[in-house]
Amino acid sequence: MSKKVVKGKEPAKSSKPVVDIKLTEDEIKDCKEAFDLFDLDSSGTIDPKEVQAALNSLGRDQSPTIFRLLAGIEECGAEIDFDSFLGHINDRLGNRESKEGVQKILDLFDAEGTGHITLKALTRVARELGESMTEEELAHALERISSLGSPELTFEDFYKVMTKKVYG
Q: Can you give the pTM of this predicted structure?
């Protein structure tokens, strides 16, 4: 983004730490759409209490991935602007090039705590995100890339997919 500089004045310095955003342009757009849903008064900021109320209305059983993704949002402060919101999502997703970052993403899928991405978990996340693939299609996709030969991914399988070291 370019900053507008008024002659004779320097741009305001932000007290926020600079965060290296590892999200794609489409993911940032999706985050902005989600942020705008929470920003009911179009003020450019959201209140963590409003986020929690919106999440509670969704129901924990209906969207556990979203709950885990937004966990700790209140630590961003009483008024969360889009940059802080984006930084939080970025931190929760982690660096997709590191094993630690990929583990964070796997943990979002793994509500049962199995250490794997099961067909049940993938189906749940697909439905939460509005994906229309059938369970059979999801099972076939998992089987193609699973080292186990079943509709279940180990961490290593998932890491290879996330770092594009295998395409199935």
A: 0.57
